[in-house]
Amino acid sequence: MTRTPFQVCALLLAMGGMTCVLVSTVSTRWKVSSSTASIITSTSVFEGLWMNCVGTSTGSVQCKKFSSLFSLATYVQACRALMIISLILGLFACLISLFGLKCTKFGSSDEHTKGKIALSGGLIFIIAGLSCLVAVSWYAATITQEFFNPLYGGIKYELGPALYIGWAGSLLAILGGSFLCCSFRKKKKPAKKGVYKYNYPEAPDNEFTQFKERKDTASTGRAYV
């Protein structure tokens, strides 16, 4: 695959990953708990980074935003910050990578400079993917720890679909960013001009050969006298 289609595919892959990260961030199903309050009424409770919701068997869903930031658990606040950082970095990476594509006309006209710009965009995509990966994995680890803790007295939740979307988005962003980094090629150093190359083994051999020939000629001349 040539360089231009490779860069375009890498950018599309990374942008698809960041789209999944955005969907995961705004989703309300980071953790889900299915509980039966009674035989007649069945409810499901699910929660995201910004609000918690309650759904009934009749199809009605009621959501409520978290009242205070300071009332949230520490890991939820940290996951919020990491997801927002991931989205901001992903936006900057998309803009930078567009300037670094070989097929684009705007930006620098030097191919090596464009490669460096694409490399920078790829590195930012990787950092954005890692930020999302840390947030989603931290959230999932906390849910798993609470679920298997016999002393935990609250509602025990399970992993929601938003976590899987976040994992997929982070991996796609890291993969696309890695491909963008691989598209960068180092500039070959040109050979130095004006350097005189002296082939020293040949000169002594020639002088020695000429001296030997003169000596043999003189010896032959004296033999005939």
Automatic annotation (TrEMBL):
Species for this entry: Pyxicephalus adspersus
Biological role: Claudins function as major constituents of the tight junction complexes that regulate the permeability of epithelia.
Localization of this protein: Cell junction, Tight junction; Cell membrane
One Pfam family of this chain: PMP22_Claudin
Keyword Electron transport (UniProt): no
Phylogenetic classification of the source organism: Eukaryota, Metazoa, Chordata, Craniata, Vertebrata
Protein name according to UniProt: Claudin
Membrane topology designation: Multi-pass membrane protein
InterPro entries, per database record: Claudin, Claudin_CS, PMP22/EMP/MP20/Claudin
Cellular compartments per GO CC: bicellular tight junction; plasma membrane
GO molecular function (one): structural molecule activity
